[in-house]
Design a protein that fits this description.
Elements (H helix, E strand, L loop, with lengths): L18 E6 L2 E6 L2 E6 L7 E4 L5 E6 L3 E3 L1 H9 L3 E5 L6 E3 L9 H11 L1 H16 L8 H23 L18 H23 L16 H8 L2 H19 L3 H16 L1 H12 L2 H5 L9
Parallel strand pairs: 1-5, 2-6, 5-7
Antiparallel strand pairs: 2-3, 3-4, 7-8
Helix pairs in contact: 2-3, 3-4, 4-7, 5-6, 5-7, 5-8, 5-9, 7-8
Length: 297
Amino acid sequence: MLKGRLGLETARVPHADRHGLIWLERGELCVINGCLHFARGKDSLTPSFDQIPHQAVSMILLGPGSSVTHDALRLLARHGTLMAAVGVDGVRSYTAPPMMPDRSDVARRQAELWGSPRRRISVARHMYALRLGEVLPHRDLDTLRGIEGSRVKATYRLMAEKFGIQWHGRRFDRANPDADDLPNQAINHAATAVQAAAAIAVQAVAAIPQLGFIHEDSGQAFVLDVADLYRDQITLAIAFMAVKQSEKSGEVMDRVVRREAARVFRKESVIPSMIDRIKQVLRMDEVAHGAGDDSDT
């Protein structure tokens, strides 16, 4: 049924017909008899080998304690299956080899919207509306950023009150992020975790990380756009809950945040939600139905 040593001559299954993501950790991704397997405990007396349906998933996420063989990379590349090295439950995103998916519709749509100044500001306004709960009438990006900045200050204060945290304002020393007080440390680490989840979502839909609608200079501008959509309800909740836990246990803040982020990501299905949100802000339903895209937010 599989031609060739690794089955490299078989036809690919379109990503539209595949399932989403599969998490693997503490084992080796390898090829056995032309099929992809994940081997756990290979050095023990009772190793286990799970066959991975690589043609039926869009992306494999390799967590801590994992390795991958050259043959496995060749097989994944041939069938267009993405792979990324991540932290536990996607709280970090380390690398994703350029195994391109079989469709470019999301990337083309993103470039189309980004390339038109009018459409670009329309997407930015849509993102701000999702965050702020209202459609702002302004069409100048600097004005929108200013309004968002003042709203965020109020959100920090309200969330701190909700969790019973003493709040003295947002401070961030990029040269020494652990020099700040515990709430600011927690926000720094939580933001990193949420950005990792956003990076996974952007990679999964094959969007273009560099083409942000609100952020501009970063090579991960669109990742930062997506992460910001979850700042109020996810990032700050993770951060302030971690502060409460750290105050009780005395654990290092980074470790507490990672554990809390992993719990929230699982409970709230954060990465699948981000994938859906990307398609929403890029108005992929209009592409699917052949609708015009001259509408404004």
